[in-house]
Amino acid sequence: QIPKDPTQRWLRELAALSQQLQQVHPNVLAKILKQRTLYQNEEIVVIDKPYGLPVHGGPGIKNCIADVLPILAKMLENMKAEPLHLCHRLDKETTGVMVLARNKEAAEKIRLLFKTRQVEKIYWAVVLGDPDPVEGVVDIPIVEKEVQSHQSHYKMTLAPNYRLCPEDGKVMKTRRKRHAERAVTRYRRLAAASACSLLELQPITGVKHQIRVHLAYGLGCPILGDHKYSHWSKLAPQKLPELTLRRLKLEQSKARHLPLHLHAHRLCLPLGQPLDFVCKLPLFFQKSLRKLELDIPKD
């Protein structure tokens, strides 16, 4: 039963997005990834990672990128090809540029480039609200914490090095939290409309969920469709501003179907000569930008 109302149809598509790739045969998934290959040479294969596909397996996950690397290698090369290797990770809901290596040596070399922060990564995200200031650097450590609520779960959160003294409002250094990792994200606003902003982000470090946490808890601008980091203790769909709902032609009760609007737009890899990969926005992201009247700057 296909809904007649275009918004309902759009929502159905969105809800199906993450399920789709979980239900196909691994060979079909490998074929999809092959069609999404942006670049390959003797050392690497660069793909455009689709929405809702995890990199690693886990409970309740039938399909992930790691599992189809042997099949993908054979499809791209020949039956004798060794499995491709992962070099870095992207969240299940994040789309965009992902680098795979053709052999162990290349994989280790590329992992080291990521670890030593020599890979330039640029992301685009739609966020709720308007960051203040409109461009800057978020430099706040991040730590994983257990959330005590009716169902206990884990989240990444901020572990600031400074706090305001309640007596005089002066900035004081605090004791460093154990297990907290340094996290630095550059950001700048590209457009603003409909109570939302389009941001360009450059994570300097690579901590788990870093961009999502820095935007939600550091700037108070959670990513559109980030139902995990829009609250602290409750696991509930994101609450959207009236204007945003109106522009998206969406009711709050259906907000849970909104996908995470975070896209790995560009990656620059210094392998011999610098290799620069750009990945265009997925269709659902482009549609949201149109509905929200967020115009991508031409430069």
Automatic annotation (TrEMBL):
* Signal sequence interval, chain numbering: none
GO terms under biological process: pseudouridine synthesis
Any one GO CC term of this protein is: mitochondrion
Q: Where's it found, cell-wise? A: Mitochondrion
Q: What is its main location?
A: mitochondrion
Keywords in alphabetical order, please.
Isomerase, Mitochondrion, Transit peptide
A molecular function GO annotation:
RNA binding
The reaction(s) catalysed by this protein are: a uridine in mRNA = a pseudouridine in mRNA; a uridine in tRNA = a pseudouridine in tRNA; uridine in 5S rRNA = pseudouridine in 5S rRNA
User: Domain Pseudouridine synthase RsuA/RluA-like: where?
Assistant: 44-216
* Record-stated family: Belongs to the pseudouridine synthase RluA family.
> By its UniProt entry, which PANTHER family does this protein fall under?
MITOCHONDRIAL RNA PSEUDOURIDINE SYNTHASE, PSEUDOURIDYLATE SYNTHASE RPUSD4, MITOCHONDRIAL
The protein in question is named Pseudouridylate synthase RPUSD4, mitochondrial
Q: What is the lineage of its organism?
A: Eukaryota, Metazoa, Chordata, Craniata, Vertebrata
